[in-house]
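Reply to dn_fold:

You asked what the input looked like. This is it:
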Amino acid sequence: MQSGETSSISRQLTEAMQCQQAGRFDESERLCAAVLDQDPGHLDALQMLAAGRFMRGQPAQAIEVLDAALLQHPDNYELNVLAGHSLRALGRLEEAADRYARAVAARRESAECRVMLGWTLKALDRRPEALLQYREAVRLSPDLVEAHNNLGVMHHDNGELEPAIACYREVLKRQPAHVQARRNLAAALRALGRVEEALGEFETLLTFDAGHAYAEIMVMHTRRELCRWRDYGAMAARVRELAVTGCGAFSPFLLFAWPVAPELLLAAARAYAANALPPQPAEPALIPAAAKPAKAKLRIGYFSADFRDHVVSAVIPEVLELHDRKAFEVVGYSYGPDDAGPQRWRIQKACAAFFDIRGISDDSAARKVRADGIDILVDLTGFTGNIRHGIPARRAAPIQINWLGYPGTSGSPAVDYLVADPFTVPGGAERFYSESIIRLPGSCQPHDRTRPVSAPCSRADYGLPDAGFVFCSFNHVQKITPEVFQVWMAILKAVPGSVLWLRADRYEAIANLRAEAAAAGVAEGRLIFAPRATNMVDHLARYHVAQLALDTFPYNSHTTANDALWLGCPLLTMAGDTFAARVAGGILHALRLPELVTGSLAAYHDAAVRLATRSDDYAAVRAKLTGVRDTGSHFDTARFTRQLEAAYREVWEIHAAGETPRHIAVAAP
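and this is what came back:
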C-alpha cells in the first residue's frame, strides 16, 4: 500500500471515529466501508464498523462483521470482547462466554473482561467458574468496584452473607455513591437480622439517590420493624404515592401492612411483575392438546423459597403427605436455604421428587420444570422474601397458581389462579386480582394437625401476673400500626388488671412500644414481651395461657390466627378490603365464628372489652370454638386436601379443553 493511501485511510478512520462519537453512525459506516474497499482486512476499520453497529442497537449486524474479522484475527482481544457483547445482547450466552474466554486468553491481565466472563458464566449456571473469574478479577484489579460487587452477589446468592458484606464494603470504600453495592449491603445486613445497620445504609443510599424508590420504602418498612412511628401519617401517605410511582422498584409485599387500597396493590403488583418478565419471548410451555385420561396422575409442582423453618413449612407438610398418590404426583422445587431441619426433611419425604434449584438460572429452572412434565406449578412464595418470579414468568408449567405464602395478587399474566375463599375474596372483588380466583369452600389457609405442642406452663413461667385478663398478639411487630396500638391501649384501660402479651425480638422496638404505652397512660408493666421461642413447640404452648388474641390490621394474622384458634384461644379480628386484611376473617367464618370478625376499630374495641369483662360471653365463645375445632371442617386437613385436589382437577379440565382460566368455586363435600 502506497504512503498516500495509508495517509488517506488514516484520515478516513479519524473522521469515522469522530462521526461515531457524535452519533452519526451512517457517516461513520460509510467511511469504514470506504477503507475496507481499499483494504478488506483492515483491523481498525472492521472493529469500528462492528462497534458502530453494536452501539446503534444492531448486535446481529455487528456479528456479521465480527465473524468475518475473527477469521482473519482470531485472537484479537478487542474483536473477541465486542463479539462477546454482541452475542450476549442476542441471548447467545454459550457463544458469548467462548468469546470472552478467548479475550481473557489473549489478555490475561484484563480484570474487566473477567468480570464480563463471570457474569455470562453465572447466567449459564456455571457458577463455580464464574466465582473463579470474579476472584481473579479482584486479585488483578483491587480497585475494580464491579468485580467486588459481583463477587459479593455470588456470595449473597450462596447464602454466604458475611463474605458478601465484606465485598460490598470494598466497593463502598472506593466508591461511596455506588448505589447497587449499598443496596446489596443493606439487604445482606437485613438478612442477618442487623436491622439498625441496614436502616442506616438505606438512609445513606437516599443521600446519594433521593429518588431511589426501593431504598425509600425500605427505610419506612424498617422503621416500622423498630416501631419508630414518628411521622407515621406522612409515611403512610408517601407509601401510597410510591405504590403508584415506584414503577415496580419494590415488591408489593412491602405495602400490605400499610393502608393501601386494593386497586393500588394491583397496580404495584403489575409493575413489579413486569420487571421480572423475560427479556426475550419465553419458550412455549408443553401444553397438551387434550385432557389426560381420567385415571392418569396430575404432576403438581410446589415451588418455594421457604422449605425450612418458616411459617409456610409449619402448615404445608400434612397437605403434601395427604395428597392422593393414585391421582397426584407431588414434586418439590426449593430455591431457598437448606437448614437441614425437621420441616425440610418432612417436606422432602412427602414429595415423589425434590429438587434444590438455588444454583441455576430462571431459564434453566423453567426448562427443568417443563422437562419434569409438571402440569400445575403452585408458587408458595410469590413476592415475599427471596423472589424468583422469573421462573413462572417463563411459563414453566401449563397452569400456574399463587397460593399461601403471598397474600395478594401477583399482577402477572403468567399466574393463572389465586387460591382464596368466599370471605377472603368476596364476590365483586375479583377486579382487584389479575388471576382467576379459586374459592375453596371453607378457608384457603391450611393447617397441620400433627404439630406437637409443649405441655401447658403457668402464668408465672411466662412472667405474667397471677390474675387479670391476658390479651395477646404474637404477630411480627411491623404489622402493628399506631392506630391499632392506640385501640389496644384503650382496651387495656377499659379492662382493669389486664395485660397485653406481645412478641418483640429487638430492644428498640420494645422500648418504643413501652414509650407509646406510657404516652397513652398505660403503665409499663401491662405490656409483657415474650422472648423469641427456641422452637415452634414452645411458642404454641403460650396459647394455653393467653385468653384472647388481638389481631393486627391491615395485615391480619394468617398462620398466627390458625395457631391461636387451634390451641383454643379465641381471636378477634377486623376485616378490611385487601386479601391480607381478610384471611383471619376467612378462618373465623370457616369455624362458624363470624361474631369475632369486626368491621371497624370501634366495634373491635367494644368486642374486646365485652369478652374480657363479661365472663359468660367469653365462656360461650370459647366453648363454641372448642366444639367447632374438634368437629368442624376447618382443621380437617384431609378434607382440605381433597378440596384442593378438586380445584386442581377442575382447572386442569378447563385447560385441557382449550379454555382460558376462569373463576371457580369448589363445592363442599
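The CA atoms of residues 70 and 79 lie 7 Å apart.
Hope that clears it up.
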